[in-house]
Amino acid sequence: MATRQIRIDEDPILRKKSRVIEEIDEKIKILNDDMVETMNNADGVGLAAPQVGILKRLFVIDVGDGAMTFINPTIISTEGEEEDEEACLSLPEQSGLVKRPQSLVVEATDLEGTVFQLFCSDLLARAVCHELDHLDGILFIDRVEK
Fold it and tell me: What's the pTM?
């Protein structure tokens, strides 16, 4: 595993849409492991592939229960709404209030190629939305309440 450089501020790659992962090969598994290490070393909750310069639909999240991998994620349903403070490893020194669903169901693929659905609430739901936005070139500052 290796720590990768996190793209910051107005790096153009952060504004690009990521491509679907067609095959979970060794390169994707290495990328995933590197992203987990990079996220942990930066004391982050989540990290999306574009944040390390790779335009693939992959993110990792750890809200305290161990790292989870989401490949080609899609939000199936949402419920409720809550506003809370967000920050981002790619936007150091910035934070703001963002409205997100209180809970959601996300469908994704794991590293073994198994499609799963996961009910997420509170911080996990917020992190899924935040990281999924990265895959579409959207940063949390685009959603900050004015």
Answer: 0.96
DSSP-H helix ranges across the chain: 26-41, 122-135
131 is catalytic: yes
115-121 vs 103-109, strand pairing mode: antiparallel
Q: How many helices (H) and strands (E) does the chain have?
A: 2, 7
Q: Which amino acid is at 25?
A: D
Q: What confidence tens digit (pLDDT) does each residue in 93-130 have? A: 999 999 999 999 999 999 999 999 999 999 999 999 99
Which entry of 85, 86, 107, 131 is annotated as an active-site residue?
131
What are the C-alpha distances in Å from 122 to residues 7, 107, 139? Answer: 27, 17, 19
Query: Where would I find the beta strands (DSSP E) of 16-114?
Result: 46-48, 58-61, 68-79, 82-87, 95-100, 103-109
